[in-house]
Amino acid sequence: MPQRNYLPGHKIKLIHSGNEYFDDLITLIESARNILHLQVYIFDDDATGKQIVSSLIEATQRGVKVYLMVDGFGSHSLKHDFQEMLKSANIFFRFFSPLPFPGITQAARRLHQKVCVADGKRAIVGGINIADKYHGDAQHLPWLDYALYVEGEVCEQLNSFCNKVWERKFTASKNNLHKHKMASEPVLVRMSQNDWIRGKNEISAGYKYMLSNAKKEIIIVASYFIPTQRLLKILTYAARQGRIIHIVLAQNSDVPFIKSAITYLYDLLLRNKIRIYEYNDAVLHAKVCVIDNSWVSIGSHNLNHLSEFMSVEMNLDVLDENFAHSFADELKTLIRDHCTEINIVEHKNSKSVFKQVFNWASYRFISFTQRILYMLNRREGKAINKSKKKIYPSS
């Protein structure tokens, strides 16, 4: 597999949602000595949110400059008093594209990445938001999701990127990853971004390239799986070429119509011998991929139009056989012990005419909505590129 843009010599660790993630996040915050960036889509003012805020305040008391940015839509429930409390504690706080939106084209462009960087040396990147549902408790399992802890040179790039988001200094130019030579030392890690309006489509391009060039096996865990037609063609072609493809999806979704829309795709996937599994234990929120026990991508990027063409997304891609093999084995255990495989015969027999129509209508509705938002976002992107202004949504 090509190693372009990967940086060598990293220390990494897979992190699971629940206590493990939030314990590691607090440890990361506690390790900061100079500067800490935390950028997340959802930050709730609940028990989990208060726990993280407490750690952030302790960091400021040590003299750390703490920058917290949350999405204006995902975290719209945060009250004014909460925001003032953060600022009074010397936490630099800002909404990305706050409500009300500066314009309708801003409504779809969300800060969807989940990243925390300490001193440009250590970081956590994943798909996990700051809220009780990702933490779980004695009665409820946490939503299933993953993140990656990393130490190494890529953390400097993560810190630089977070600073650009904070300072609203975005351009459509290529990032400096392309200046690095081919790397050959383990563990190889690269930062991948999606922000289509700013000329970044690295995560989507990486997915398409790696899926197209898979040799043996593909494992995908996807929470909101409404892929573009091109990505569907890549997957079905890979299956027809004899690649073994496992896709883990949600049995229940937190978003209306998403489950029905995804189910509409089952016929196409199953006809092409793509194996589908539904996670049973809790809400599935993960967005990860393992290919050929060699390549892993973990982060915030969903396989749908919103992530590909509208939201600001962050993934870490890893080229390391030991890590990829271990993660693939873990996902296969998850499939075996906590998922139900969808059988093509049972699936066909379970469908009523009403259910088929409802699934089709849900898929068309969501696809149409995403395309409308994409067209609005595209118009905004063309306007920005034409004017060549280095602007960012006001906050």
Question: Secondary structure elements and their pairing?
Answer:
Elements: E1 11-16, H1 19-31, E2 35-40, H2 47-61, E3 65-71, H3 80-88, E4 92-96, E5 114-118, E6 122-126, H4 132-135, E7 146-151, H5 154-167, E8 188-195, E9 200-201, H6 202-212, E10 217-222, H7 229-240, E11 244-250, H8 258-264, H9 266-271, E12 275-279, E13 287-291, E14 295-299, H10 305-309, E15 313-319, H11 321-338, E16 339-341, H12 344-349, H13 353-387
Parallel strand pairs: 2-3, 3-4, 10-11, 11-12
Antiparallel strand pairs: 1-7, 2-5, 5-6, 6-7, 8-9, 8-15, 10-13, 12-16, 13-14, 14-15
Helix pairs in contact: 1-2, 8-13
Give a short overview.
With 395 residues, this protein is an alpha+beta fold. It has 13 helices and 16 strands. The protein has two domains: 159 residues, Endonuclease, Chain A, CATH 3.30.870; 202 residues, Endonuclease Chain A (Endonuclease, Chain A, 2-Layer Sandwich).
